[in-house]
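Protein folding task:
====================
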Amino acid sequence: MKKGNTGNRRFHLVFLIMAMVIFASVFSGCASKPDLSKKKGAYVVTIDGVEISPRKSTVKDLTNSGFQVAVREGDGDEAQYFELDSSMRLAANTSYYGNYLFKNDVLIAHLTLTGYTGVKSATVADIESISVDVADIEGFNVLIEGVPASEVTVENVEEKFPGIKPSGDNFELQNEDKYRILVSVKDGKIEGFTCNYLD
């Protein structure tokens, strides 16, 4: 009888431990589910289905996706654009040079490289930030973090980008991965968007 009771006790103890392990695993699985209300990951600009990410997209990536990448020398009527091929790198951000993104010979974005710290090889450099002016996006399907840029207005910007905070005449949205979107406003209208990486 004693042996039988001991066996029953052991069975019940093993059963109880197994039940606790199963319950704990199920509970932890429920607890670890992502909060879908919070946006995670890098904020990106998507142009005609191609994601353009700071510190990720390169000249080679963009040219392979059908874009033209050019460096500008001079300003105003003196400005000249020199197209880069996939083996070249962006120019550092100076008062004389700037980097620009074209598609079908139409200017759609400005690319910034603040230094050569993001260079992956001797010839291809990462993009530090992407600026899209609203005036430049006609005819292009431009998404800012999945939101059509052409649909965003001063009145609905907080609805389109939950958590956005007004700052003077501009708006800013920042996430945990050190990326942010700056929404520039002029005369009560959204003038453009900048997606950049914060060191």
